[in-house]
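Example 3.2
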Amino acid sequence: MKSSAKTVKETWQTLQEKLNYSFRNDALLAEAMTHRSYANESHSDELPDNERLEFLGDAVLDLIVSQYLMESLPDSHEGDLTRIRAEVVALPCLARLARSLDIGSALLLGRGEENSGGRDKSSLLADALEALFGAIFTDGGFEAAQSTIMPLFVPLLRQASIDDGQDFKSRLQELMQSTHRELPVYTLIETTGPAHERLYRVDVIIDGSVYGSGQGRTKKSAEQAAAQATLLLLDEHS
């Protein structure tokens, strides 16, 4: 369903109510909700896209989640903390949270992105959610970002800590074996970023088709994210 810019902007107040946060600088909210396809079509230097805020929001989210884990799990080792954090900030979780907030309806998209179903693309929704966190941090500071992020993520973090040691790749392999299907193949699709901050993207291929995609700072974490995304997809279609 196509949405006009006016209709989209009408959803921004509802989004703020869901987040329990009201922007002092509305331009930051507009920037967070502006996909580059819309910014490019507007041909205006005064309308930046949300990629810079996404970069900031990713770091803010990692810091707030890390702080919570350090305080709530004082006896856990670094490897366990890293796994739990990676699980809840992975694309599938971010996309689900974005859908629960109906961020798709709040996005300013270019015509091509709109026509290709951009409002429900997991990667686009996850990026917009991180941009939103970056905008809140810029608008209100660390405490504002923390008070917005924690109610969304604490339930996920608690569940992830209960499921300590969960291995999505093993779970996916066991599922394939139990249904007598071909075992998943993990294919590295893309490596981006500087040497000190690599970002890997991996696809899961089953029976010759791509089922899930994941990103991570290491190949292993990207594979785990891709396996998690595949499990979610299979569960939705079961």
